[in-house]
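Deviation from plan, reported transparently: zinc ion complex.
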Amino acid sequence: MADRQSARVPGHGLQAEGKAFAPGNLAEEQAPWIRVRGHIGRGVCACGAVSDVEWTDAARKRWHRAHKDEERREVIPVEGSEDA
Ligand SMILES: [Zn+2]
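Because the crystal trials were delayed, the predicted structure below was used instead.
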């Protein structure tokens, strides 16, 4: 499958390619989320964002795409406003 490289957003990577995660030890920053067997679980982004419980890797990838779109919207630079 051809992933569009341009869709990458720095600092945002879907962990384990959309595999399912469940709450680990939320008190420990090291391992707040852990991989689980099977398909039901949450998607986890490198930035710490977590999806709802989804039933497929594809659904988690869809969530991550939408998540990146949101983040990208916030980092788009505004041109021309600081020319003196
Ligand atoms: Zn993220």
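Residues 12, 45, 47, 49, 67, 71 surround zinc ion (CB under 6 Å). We consider this an acceptable substitute for the interim report.
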